[in-house]
Amino acid sequence: xxxxxxxxxxxxxxxxxxxxxxxxxxxxxxxxxxxxxxxxxxxxxxxxxxxxxxxxxxxxxxxxxxxxxxxxxxxxxxxxxxxxxxxxxxxxxxxxxxxxxxxxxxxxxxxxxxxxxxxxxxxxxxxxxxxxxxxxxxxxxxxxxxxxxxxxxxxxxxxxxxxxxxxxxxxxxxxxxxxxxxxxxxxxxxxxxxxxxxxxxxxxxxxxxxxxxxxxxxxxxxxxxxxxxxxxxxxxxxxxxxxxxxxxxxxxxxxxxxxxxxxxxxxxxxxxxxxxxxxxxxxxxxxxxxxxxxxxxxxxxxxxxxxxxxxxxxxxxxxxxxxxxxxxxxxxxx
Amino acid sequence: xxxxxxxxxxxxxxxxxxxxxxxxxxxxxxxxxxxxxxxxxxxxxxxxxxxxxxxxxxxxxxxxxxxxxxxxxxxxxxxxxxxxxxxxxxxxxxxxxxxxxxxxxxxxxxxxxxxxxxxxxxxxxxxxxxxxxxxxxxxxxxxxxxxxxxxxxxxxxxxxxxxxxxxxxxxxxxxxxxxxxxxxxxxxxxxxxxxxxxxxxxxxxxxxxxxxxxxxxxxxxxxxxxxxxxxxxxxxxxxxxxxxxxxxxxxxxxxxxxxxxxxxxxxxxxxxxxxxxxxxxxxxxxxxxxxxxxxxxxxxxxxxxxxxxxxxxxxxxxxxxxxxxxxxxxxxxx
Lengths: 334, 334
Known about the structure:
The structure is a homodimer. By secondary structure, chain A is of the alpha/beta class. Chain A folds into 2 domains: 1-112 and 278-334, Isopropylmalate Dehydrogenase (3-Layer(aba) Sandwich); 120-270, Isopropylmalate Dehydrogenase (3-Layer(aba) Sandwich), CATH 3.40.718. Chain A has helices at residues 8-20, 31-38, 73-82, 95-106, 141-159, 180-190, 217-242, 246-254, 256-266, 292-307, 310-333, and strands at 25-29, 47-51, 88-91, 116-122, 127-131, 166-169, 196-200, 212-214, 273-277, 282-286. In chain A, the strands form 2 sheets. The first copy, chain A, has an 8-stranded mixed β-sheet with strand order 3-10-9-4-5-8-6-7, sandwiched between helices. A two-stranded parallel sheet of chain A has the order 1-2. In chain A, a hairpin with a 4-residue loop joins strand 9 (273-277) and strand 10 (282-286).
């Protein structure tokens, strides 16, 4: 029921997903509304509907699904994962309400103190995973360490690489550069056994030098939104310039394939959504303006998340890091 | 002597500036090298050369001009301003060394605790001033307040508007949104008497909703570098797409004016450089890859800075804010 184009595009995306991937989808929302959308479907194989009477609106607070709207679709989704009836859930609705439900109802992975929202951005060669992009503000070094571990496993899955290069967002490349938070975090990340490549500058998000960029949710959110707006601005300005004269219009027509190619490269919907890492089970947060393709891809990501047991891998690694810390502090005390 | 294209482009830019604006330029550097570049000039009216034997390299630390290289061009520039022989100086060299020299030799404006580097970025309608973009990390609310005051006066001058809209970079628009720093700063900025329009999100840097965006130097630097890299990435990808087939190449040729228009719109060199606000006298920090046009424009900005007595305006406003604070704390004690 959430998102600018719900329920139409959401249902359409779910139908695309079940036709393309070996996945079962439970559509959660006001049943009669959802069924009406499903009427066009040729087959309802692998589609189920679960009724949820309430809808969390964009104006609602993040706590609505826990208090006033306990029967909202997003809360019911979290319930289904928590009860083991679903492996993961996908939402294009109120972001705060989505992650509050996931965190409170599904619970955190043991040893992880905060969830992180991980966004996939295009870079010059491929893609970069940036996290956290807004689930937390005022992070501490051990939170950033958790983000690094979670980003590592998620990047392994989505990018298909064994040892993703993990960078710490800072200013200046050298270890001593940055603010109080990054200086301390740098020291901590060196001890993780991950493929930590040191500080990443703002430019490294887009130049393809790193696979995972770790930062606190405040800065990640600002960078994400600034990047989105910059992209829209450039595209708007170019469109304006391209339609200013007849030769330019003809040129634009001849080069249409080039613009389409670029658009596809920059298209957020290819990756469908950003996972909320750190919660038990999968939770994929989609852009409010998600279309069917974005939803379909988000379902693919959710499936991969469950199949690859990302949350178990995260837990094992975090437990291991905690144990090693315990050992070294025991040693230090002896 | 500083910058990727020094001294050639620097000297060329200075010659352009004296021919276009009523300004006198003192070129500071190894005299024989500078004179050689000047040999092509038709006239040396309003051009002077001051010898400085040493050169701060990019590898030198920010403290080099204060310690080992006291006769470096950047240090001599700061001396000239400090002695009143120049109103402002322009440098495309080592950024850290530039602002260390300015700060230490020229001194801070009374009442200002930290300098801030202010960058002008294109937005959908016009331009946005973003500060600080890297002179400080770990700022406190009163530092951000100083940045807001300094940004206000600088934006008045460069944008020619009476009451620039000042926004505080945060996540979420409402007062309660953000991290510890922005929440406290929001409260402080409301009391400044500036045209404070509240929180600005990452997107507001580029959508034209605000004229001045205030943030700490860590995040400002990350956003600036990420934006630069994103712009380069898009331009690189588009170039690749445009040359992939003959029709596209023809299209690109027909639409060349459109790309040139966009390029001009995004061109950092139009504003030449970023002022280091908060020091006594002017200091304009240019991009390392500045060409003659960027240097010419930086000199124009330096001239405007001096003519508009920006530093005096900043000092008056800061003194006023401190006095009001003192009054209200006296009142509170009574």
